[in-house]
Every structure is written in C-alpha cells, then in structure tokens.
C-alpha cells in the first residue's frame, strides 16, 4: 500500500466538519493529521472526537507543520484564495471547496498561486462531478451515447423545511447565482465541454421579503447559450415543497440522460393514502455524502499516484465569471454577453 | 360501414349500468336497443337517460324481441347460466360478464348451451385481457420476448376507502377466491397457456371480523403449480392502504413484464411534503373503464366480422374449478390437486 | 337525453380524419352529418367508412346546409380564420383546431367574427388542456395545492423515428415556435394565469441542415417572463431519442406538479438486458387520442348545455403573438419585450 | 474516540476479501490486524495490499494471537460453527457471515458455543438488515405505519450474465433454498416478528439441466404461513433477464412498503430507442456494498459500546430449519409443517 498522506484541514463549519470526518474515517491512503479553525473550543472538540494530533487556530501556522503533505480548505469562501496561496507556497498540495473565491479578481490570485507551483496538486471541489450518477452520465456522453449535447437543464432546490437557517445565511451567501447556480454552471460547462457565451437571468421574490432587501430572489432561473451553440437552463429556489432536489438532464441529439433526486434517499417506496411515493433526501449533506468522500479520495489518489485532477483552478474562475454575469443580468433585466 | 348490431342488456347494477352506457355511447357498430332489470323504476330511468327504445323486467320476455341481435348478461352471477341459455336458445349472440356462474355444475350447463348453438358468438367477460397493458404483455409473451414463462404473480387489492360497501356485499360475493381471484386465475392460465394442477391457499382475518363469520378472509393468497411446471401466486385483500391496485408480473427465463397500477390514474406526479408521488385509481370502474369498452367492442366486432372471441365458455369453467379448489384449500389448510 | 347535435367537419388530413372518427364514434350528444375536403376521393372514402350522409369539397357550400348545427375546422392553418368566419356567419357554432391562424392579423379577423356572433359557441382546440393529467394539474393549481406558480417548464419533443415526414412538412410548418411551442405557450399562460411579457429564444441546427435553410432550428428553447413575475421555459426538438415526449412541470412555492410521458404508453414495465424500462407513445396522435375526443365532447356539451368554453378566441391570438415574438428573438438573438 | 478494535478475518474468497477491505478502509473504531486463508499466496497478496501485520493459514493459530479482540468468519459455510467455537473459546468476539452453518445440527453447536460465552459479542451477518432501505422499512413497521403485517414477498434473482460462475458453484451451494432463500426467510421472520409454521415449495428446471442432476431448480418459490397468521412468498432464480434483483414488499393492513432494485444502481435514467430506463446493479456485491460495511460497523460498535447485536445465533438456526423444510417440500411435493 502507498504511503499514507498526512492532511491538515481548514474550517470546521458544517461542511468542514463533514470533510474532516470523511478524511479521518473513509478516505484510504490518507489520514487527518491537523485541523484548524478560529474557534479554539471547536478545534479541541473535533480533535478529541477524531483523534487528530495537531490543532491550530491560524492557517499560516498550520501550513508550517513539516509533517503535513496536503491542505484541505473549507474556510469561508472569501478566504479561499488566501488559504490556497498559503498552502501552496508552503509546499503543500491543496484541495479547496467551491467556490474558488467570492470575486473574479481573487479567483485570478488563486490561479497565479497554482501556476507558481506546477509540481503541486491543486483540486477544486465541485463534488457533483464525483457522484456516481453524474460520473456515469459524463462517461456516457463522452462515449457518444446520446449524440451531440443540445441542452443541459439543472435544478438546485433547497427544502423549505430548512428555510430558517437559509434566511440567516442569505446576507452572506453571495446570492442565488453565486451560491447555488455555480454548481449548475459547472455541470453545464462539464457536460457540454463549452464556455458560457450569453446569459439571461430572471427571477423574483415569491415568498420571502428578505430577498428583496438583498436585491436577490427566492426563486430564479438563468438561460445560457454556450460558445458551441449548446444551451443551458438553470433553476434554483429556497422553497422546494419536498426535500433537497438536485436534478440534471442532458438532452442530446440521440438520447437523453436524467439524474433526479426522486426516490434517491433510498430504494423505499411507500404506499399509503397519499398514493405510491418516494421520499427525498432531507438536505444536501445527506444527498452528497458519498460524493464528498469520493472527491477527497480522488485528490488523495492524484497525489499518491502522481496524477492531476480533472477539476482545475480555471474551472473555478470560469464558473464565477458566468455566475456574476447571471447576477448582473438578473439585476439589470438585460440579456448579456459573457466575455 | 357494417350494419349496426342491436343489443339488449340484462342487469342495471353498478357494472351493468357501466356496460349499458358504454354500448350506448362508445361501442361502434352497435346500439343499445333494449334493457332489462327486475327494478322497473331503474329501467325507466336508464332508458330515459340513454334513449333506449325497449324496456323489460323479465329476461325471458326480452329475448323474444325479434329486433335484437345480441344479449349482454350482467345480471347477478347466480343467474348467468340461465340467462346465457335463454339468449342462445332465442337465437341471439351472447356476452356474459365474469364469472360464468357460481358453481361448476351451472358452468357445465352454460357450456352445453353454447355447444348447442355453434353458429352463435358467445364471449365471457374477463375484461383485464382487453386492457392495453395486459394485451401488450400477452403479445410480447407470445412473441417469445421473455423466454419461457416461469412465474405469474397477480394481486387484486380493493381500497380500504370503499370497505363499507364491500362488507355489505361480502355475504353474497362467494368469497375472495371466487369473487376476486378468478381474475388472477384467468390471467395465470392465459399468460402460461397451462391449467392449474395443484393449489395451496392460505389467509386470515386481519381486521374485519365479518369475514371470520363467513369462513372467509380479508387478506389471502394462493400459490398454484400449473400442468406445464410454471408457477402462479395470487394475493387479494380488501384493505389496500391506497386506491385500487391490480398488479401482475410475468417472470420469464429471459425477461420480466410488469403491469402495475402505480401512477396509473394518469401521468401526474405530485411533489409535496410527502415526497414525490403518484396516486392510484380510486376504484375498479375507473381502472378498467376502457377495458370494459374494449371487451364489448371485441364482442360486437366478432359478430360483425364473423369471428370467434378468444375467451371461451370453457375458460369460465376452468377458472371456477380452480377458484373452488383454492377455497377448499383455504378452508382445509391442505395443499390440493386440481383435477 | 339532449337532442343530437349535427356536425360538419372541414379537413380530412391526418388530424382531421382523427376528429371525424371521434365525432362519428365516441362523442356523445352529436353525430357526424357532413364532411368537407378539397380531395373529393378522400371525402367519398371517409363518408363510406363513417356513414356520413352529406359530403362537400367547398366549405362555403357546406355551411349552407340547414341541418348542420356546428362546424369543426381542421383545415390547413392558413384558412382557419376564413373558415371560422364562414361558419359563424352562416349561423353555426364553431370549433377550430390550433393555431387560430398563421398571422396575428388573421387572428384578429377571427376575433372579429367571434365577437359578431356572441350567441354562438366558439372554441379553440388546445387539446392538452383536455388531457386528464393536465386537467387535474390545473384543478390542483386553482385549489392552491402548490402555492403561487413560479415556473412552468414544458417540452415538446417529436421522435426521430418520424423525422422523414417531419422534414417534408417543415417548410410549411411555420417553424418550431409557431408549430410546436404554441402548445407550451398556451400551457404556460393557462397555468400561470398571466401573459408573456419578455422572451429570449435560442436554438440551433444540431443535425438536419434543412432547418438552417429555413432559418429555423431542429432543437430550440425559449425562456419567458410573465407579467405577474412568473417564469416559463420551453424546449422543443425533432430528434427525440425515444418516442413522442411532451412533459410539463409546474413549480410552485409549496409544491411541484409533473406530467411526463414516461411510461405513458400504458402501464407495462419491461425488464430485460437494457434494465427496467417503460416505452413512450410512438406519436402525438396516440399520446393525445383521448384528449382529442374530450375537447370535441366539451364543445358539444357547451352547445347542448348553453355554456361557453374555457378556451377563447383571444387565447389563440395571445399565443400566436407570443410565438411570433419567440421566433423574432431566435432570429435576432435579442431578448424582446412582448407588447 | 474509543480504543481501536483489532480484528482478525478468516477467509479471503470473493466476499471475504470484500469484508477485509471494508474493515481496513471504511469501518471506524477498528483495524484489520490479521487475515487467514488456506491459500498462503492469497494471504500474502492481500496482506501487502491492505497493510495487514499478521497472516495465517490456520484459524486455530490465528485465534491464539493475544492482540486480536475479534474474529470475522467468512470461511466456507461448512466450517462456520467450528470457527465460531474456536474464536469464542479463545476469548474473542465473533462475527460470522450467513448462513450459520450448513446443517441444523451444526447450527446447534454454534448456539452452544455462543451460550458458553455470554460476555462475548456474537453477530450473524444477514447484511440486508443493514441496508438503509431495509432498515427504514423495519423502523416504519415497528412504528405501526402500515398496521399489521399481512404478507412479505421477497425475491432474490441473480443475473443470467453471471450464470457461468453460478453453475460452477451450484454443486457446493446447498441449493436455492439454503443458498438464496435464507436471506428472504430472515427478512420474512424479521418483518413479521414471527416464526415459519407451514411451507409449500415448488419450482423446476426451466433452462439449465445441471439443476435437474442436482435435484435442485433454476427457478423456484416457497409460500410460508407464520405462527401469527401472516404470510410469506419467496421467489428465486438464476436467470434474471437484467442485473441483480432483490426486491421485498411488505403489505400491511394500512399500507405497503416496497424495496426494489429498479433504478438502484444510481439515479441515472437513460432515454433512448428502448424507452426510458434505469439499469440494475450488475451483481450482489455492488448492490450490498454499503450494507456489508454497515454490518461490520454495527458489530464493532456493539463491542466498543457494550451492546448486543439484533441478529442472534438463534436467527441463524431458525432460518436454516425453515430453509431445510422448504427444500424438503420442494423434493417431496408436499406441504409441510415446520416444527
């Protein structure tokens, strides 16, 4: 067996904690050697739970630890570029959760840091690409099973049951296009193999007035035309009547692939007075549990096997540019060209 | 266009009225010329509604009407053989709803009546055979699509929402095996092309004590072995948690066909707090609406085109024999040979 | 029973013949008394088959027949307004298949003809509204089951298996937006209860060069914003990998309704080497068979019961206007306001 | 974090290797400290791959290793009771894959060994109980969601694509009832909370003559009546037209739960010329991958948390007794009482 990679993980929020647990328990060829968060008490608690030898409250300190081979960045989005640079400059491989950062300018800084360390593995975490169903769809498209890709439709719907937490987070989320649609934009680029050329984004406040104050929407969509002529349609909302729904459909000239969330929670069908039904995943962490494991596993395997990941730093910048263009289109009401 | 067949229909109960409406409105090449029921007021009411010129309260009188070409029998089951004989002896073609009659002895009388009039069309109403899905399954089996038929599993489940009417009807129904399983037995014979050789039937009273008084069950099943080695499994209950559920599965050596009721009511999928769901048909009349039309249409077309129907009087006897054997097995607890 | 309405039907093309058969065989309270087509041989053939007493090759002649109560117009689209006016001016009720006509100007002429005869029933044939699944979706929306309507997504996909005939018809079809999207536009207006305000339509030629010559697309979509803030997305193509697919999804603030074509052909599920699968309807006539009957039935019932249909002449004009706006957006590449 | 349990695993066949990998990589709170197999070369290879410090070719030697806390038995079924006794007598906790052993007599020996060491954790591996869907079904039944359990129907179907290996294994498998139905029997007992009272088992050779020579069947079923009046139906075959299909349905007096394999491989729906379809898992190892992890995880957690597992040694004996009774019924053609 290959040597065990020693990983330091930054950020212990909801998703950061998930990543920490996954590295400690489910990723093979790696171990969780250090954790870092500004909340010292949380750091101590998680270190105890997961048996982590080194703990930090400052990323700049952690990256100096000579035992560490790689850094996993799950800090707040606005620090991503900074932490990426710290990690790479310290000679560590680096995995960063999406988005690359919160502005296109800072994305460019991350690009520079990556380019300055071509011998290091850098990977961006678009975890949907590592879900079994999405991965199989990509393989079938690449194999030509559905002909030319014509339209990618992708929905990201959060359950209304979690609306309270969502509303609290809303002012810091960057808005629907930057927080939610980035996943769909990445999928559209990935499945079409093309870049977003023109966008028209519309939406509105159908229920929660807070979004109006934020110049945002609780339900919105964006239509995009790609530079190879293919089309994309995204819809996102915070008020899905059932659980977490992420569905993506790829229509080709010879066939269609659909990945929906229906019945996804497990294989159970329930027949009762409401008919025959399947329940949804209650939230995104349960939906993408295995994909989050798979993506870190891929990062670790890339390092251990000397490969480069399929998701690059440039994917992060391209997606952010397109998301900002959608946001601008939504705000101005105009169809815009993305250059 | 062929000449229009003149039909007299016997019985204006729930299903008899459905047949009368179908003949009057949806069956081509035929018209409803006479109706008969012991309830004179009901006869008058339906005649007015459907514009029927001749009305009767006595079947023996109706069959003397020289204008009539054919008789449709939807009277209570215990009169079927008698009415079939009356119709055929009067020189009319005859369609009879299932079952052929309530005892094997009376089924044999019906057989004799049919044999005495080989020039007349006689057809027994196993309407499931005339449902599009069942008809297509049969075509695929005959085409060899699933190899040899190994197992036919068939469920007949009534919704608990209609339990009140069901309990009232229970003492006169003949019991689950004769009232419900006859449909499944006909399908098992039809899809396997074989006869029932051995049966073991079990069941019990899980909720409604009335069935115990009747020496019957509210939930019961029967396993059968056919004379070509194929197998059949039936389940029937009166307490289905959702609507009307009739589902049939045919497992072959090379493939499987399934006809289920799920989502059958129409194509609507509803996503709400209960998940993603499809509703069931509320009752058997809505489930089989088109099949009831199709079967009378086939009867009319057989007469108009000089063909013989695929469902014979012998199918009625064979099914009744097997159903009685199941009932006996249920009552004695023994596995029985059907001879 | 109400008096039987006498109908004269114009046009015996593929759909016209379907309507003629439906009136003759399945619509209650009406009979097919006259047919008209420029092809005299076809008229004679259908009259023989369906037992139709009066035959014509000129609509102006047919509408003079004093026995007729109503005219059903299924002539080529460019004659619709003219035939509507002929029928109404002759004192007949009138049903017209979609679209109302081929230009907004001619739609306005039809409006005037209808307004001149307020005592006559006029109904436009958007048959999807009369499909059981669509009708139930509308009832649930009106009952508030899914909250406010946020997005209506509607696809109209023709199977590639019928591409040969489609290509022949393409030069006379009016293009995807006028021929296909009019159905989706009607549904979007119906389900949202609002009018199309802004449109952006994109598409391309992914496979069949003929569409490039016609300044049309073989795969295209349109995004619309309605005047109440709701959104609509349409996609249409001529190259669906499986059979006829029409699917519509209505996302509300509290729930979602989906009407898809999958498994629609019937209830049969086939398990074989390809997995577990349901087949599609092979073509639009089989998909909408019952809806075509239902719409004429509604027209007849409106007349016989003194009611006015829910689909008005103005629906026809509004849909055509929006479709032309989509076409213009597709041709110019611009997002356009629909006024 | 709790101390890490040290596990020695016996047997490196297809499933034994799967268990070894799971313990080494995915089970938390435990590590794979020793492996044992009669094939020394295989032991060396797996030890290298999974970094296992101790290796053995003799179970009796391995259980002497004082570092080991627990033994996982995945040796050939005929050695299960012997290895269980060796492990427990050596003071180790013990997990044993199903079946408990190959005869009821040897099952009783295992029972005695377990009873002699009440302080040790013993767990039998019926992994289906640890699949998320099955576990949720059990929770819902226990919560009374579907009322009283009336019928459990359970299928175990192997894909015909793997028939070659299946035929090689057939002479040593114990036959369909002991090799396949034991899973279904365990589920029927688990979901009904009752014991098998009467059985009738039928089947036949529909395709592969080898099974006739073995006095076995390639397609067979068994109907059982439980001592509380509930019913069970099992079907098993080696010739499933698609992939691995395990489906279980629990019909209660107020609702039904279904766990099917359709669309289980992942969430991908494929639309092409064959219709809209979902693929099956290709084999049982991919179907139950996570369940195999979960069951060992439960075993480890029981030890670390001082709990006793829900699957006992007596479950193993009861299932074997019922399976033998089914086999005897199949061979004699009689309905039999299970005492």
Q: What is this structure's SSE topology?
A:
The structure is a homotetramer of 339-residue chains.
Chain A: E1 5-10, H1 14-25, E2 30-36, H2 40-50, E3 54-56, H3 59-62, E4 70-73, H4 80-89, E5 93-97, H5 104-115, E6 122-125, H6 132-142, E7 149-159, H7 163-169, H8 176-179, H9 181-192, E8 196-204, H10 210-213, E9 219-226, E10 231-240, E11 245-252, E12 256-259, E13 268-272, E14 275-278, H11 284-287, H12 289-305, H13 313-332, E15 336-337
Parallel strand pairs in A: 1-2, 1-4, 2-3, 4-5, 5-6, 7-10
Antiparallel strand pairs in A: 7-11, 8-9, 8-15, 9-10, 11-12, 13-14
Helix pairs in contact in A: 1-12, 4-5, 5-13, 9-13
Descriptive report:
The structure is a homotetramer of 339-residue chains. By secondary structure, chain A is α/β, with parallel strands linked by helices. Chain A has two domains: 5-120, 3-Layer(aba) Sandwich (Rossmann fold); 129-287 and 319-337, Dihydrodipicolinate Reductase, domain 2, CATH 3.30.360. In chain A, 38% of the residues lie in helices and 27% in strands. Chain A has 13 helices and 15 strands. A seven-stranded mixed sheet of chain A has the order 12-11-7-10-9-8-15. In chain A, strands 3-2-1-4-5-6 form a six-stranded parallel sheet, sandwiched between helices. Chain A is globular. Chain A starts with a strand and ends with a strand. Chains in contact: A-B, A-C, A-D, B-C, B-D, C-D. The B-D interface holds B 146-148, 150-151, 153, 160, 198, 200, 202-204, 206-207, 219, 221, 223, 225, 229-231, 233, 235, 237, 239-242, 251-256, 333-335 and D 146-148, 150-151, 153, 160, 198, 200, 202-204, 206-207, 219, 221, 223, 225, 229, 231, 233, 235, 237, 239-242, 251-256, 333-335. β14 (275-278) of chain C pairs antiparallel with β14 of chain D, so a sheet runs across the interface.
């Amino acid at each position: 067996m290959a040597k065990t990679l020693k990983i330091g993980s930054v950020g212990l929020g909801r998703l950061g904690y998930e990543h920490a647990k996954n590295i400690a328990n489910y990723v093979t060829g790696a171990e969780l050697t250090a954790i870092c968060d500004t909340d010292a008490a949380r750091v101590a608690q998680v270190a105890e739970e997961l048996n982590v030898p080194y703990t930090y409250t400052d990323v700049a300190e952690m990256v100096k630890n000579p035992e560490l081979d790689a850094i996993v960045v799950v800090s707040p989005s606005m620090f991503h570029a900074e932490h990426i640079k710290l990690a790479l400059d310290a000679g560590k491989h680096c995995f960063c959760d999406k988005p690359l950062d919160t502005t296109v300018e800072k994305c460019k800084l991350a690009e520079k840091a990556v380019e300055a360390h071509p011998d290091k593995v850098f990977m961006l975490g678009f975890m949907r690409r590592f879900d079994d169903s999405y991965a199989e769809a990509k393989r079938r498209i690449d194999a030509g099973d559905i002909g030319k890709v014509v339209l990618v439709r992708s929905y990201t719907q959060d359950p209304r049951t979690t609306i309270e937490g969502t509303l609290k987070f809303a002012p810091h989320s960057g808005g629907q296009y930057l927080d939610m649609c980035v996943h769909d934009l990445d999928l559209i680029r990935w499945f079409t193999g093309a870049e977003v050329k023109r966008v028209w984004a519309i939406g509105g406040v159908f229920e929660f007035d807070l979004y109006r104050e934020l110049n945002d929407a609780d339900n919105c969509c964006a239509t995009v035309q790609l530079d190879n002529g293919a089309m994309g349609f995204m819809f996102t909302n915070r008020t899905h009547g059932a659980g977490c729904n992420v569905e993506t459909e790829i229509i080709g000239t010879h066939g269609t692939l659909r990945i929906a969330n229906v019945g996804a929670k497990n294989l159970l069908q329930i027949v009762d007075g409401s008919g025959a039904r399947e329940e949804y995943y209650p939230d995104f962490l349960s939906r993408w549990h295995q994909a989050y494991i798979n993506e870190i596993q891929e990062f670790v395997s890339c390092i251990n096997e000397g490969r480069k990941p399929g998701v690059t730093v440039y994917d992060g910048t391209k997606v952010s540019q397109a998301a900002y263009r959608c946001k601008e289109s939504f705000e101005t009401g105009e169809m815009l060209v993305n250059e």
